[in-house]
Amino acid sequence: MKLGFVSAILPEYSFEQVIDFASENGFKCVEIMCWPKGKAERRYGGVTHIDMDLMDKQKADYIFEYISNKNVHISAVSYYPNNMDPDPQERQFYNEHLKKVIIGARMLGLHNVNTFVGRDQNKNLSDSIADFRKIWPDIVKFAEDNDVRIGIESCPMYFTMDEWPGGKNLAGSPKIWRELFSIIDSRYFGLNYDPSHLVWQRMNYIAPIYEFKDKIMHVHIKDAQLYQDRLDDVGALAPPLEYHYPKIPGLGDIQWGKFISALRDIRYKGAACIEIEDYSFEDSLEDRILALRQSKAYMNQFIL
């Protein structure tokens, strides 16, 4: 298992600075953000450390040489838009850029791309599944043709009222994963598994590791703290950020020893990338760097 981090937390850094930081601090890999250049859509969105619009063989060769000299791997190249956006033009843009990221991964000799399935937040589950049947087979076929695996993150993207009522990502629970994988049964279509999203939904975050052991392509290391007193006050139907916060590993509710033990049980040997979204470490770049270093120190108990 390779311990790394998600590059979105360092938006002011260049690609080279991200890799240098990883190398200097003992990280073995980095999940690199590849949003199109432009304004961020949300917190930690819109970060570009590799611009896939400019990817060519010369750029790919440069990146490969740079990471090789620093002894750092790229665990995945990633782009997290709403790939089932209800606006056809927006959706087409997102899907086409995702395909650019897939092509870029192939040019870099990589095999993992992470993203969201997406969702029309105003549709019910059945209609959202119908949208998935229409939109996603073409994307997965494109990935298969390029020998690149797509890892869909296990997050409902329902945190605040602007994502009400259904959230902006369909792939939020094991029941739904089961259905999506029955519709598209491909070894190129799997999970970017993040236990924190199961925690705040008050779900078992260990058991799915065993059921979906052949679908886990990438792992996020992010903790979550559920505040029972706040939940008691607002109820489970309130926007989830009213009763939980993302945390760095060790400061939330996840028992990381048990989590990593389960990954060891299934012989997972891929990337486990620390994802920093902890509000307590957002005041400055120095705070975010501290969050990465502290998270690595904690996770080194379980992953070296």
Automatic annotation (TrEMBL):
Q: What are the entry keywords? A: Isomerase
Spell out the coiled coil positions from the record: none
Query: Gene3D superfamilies given for it?
Result: Divalent-metal-dependent TIM barrel enzymes (3.20.20.150)
**Protein name, UniProt field:** Xylose isomerase domain-containing protein TIM barrel
Residues of the Xylose isomerase-like TIM barrel domain? 19-288
Highest taxon, organism lineage = Bacteria
Q: Which organism is it from?
A: uncultured spirochete
Q: Name one GO molecular function term.
A: isomerase activity
PANTHER family attached here?
A: HYDROXYPYRUVATE ISOMERASE, XYLOSE ISOMERASE-LIKE TIM BARREL DOMAIN-CONTAINING PROTEIN
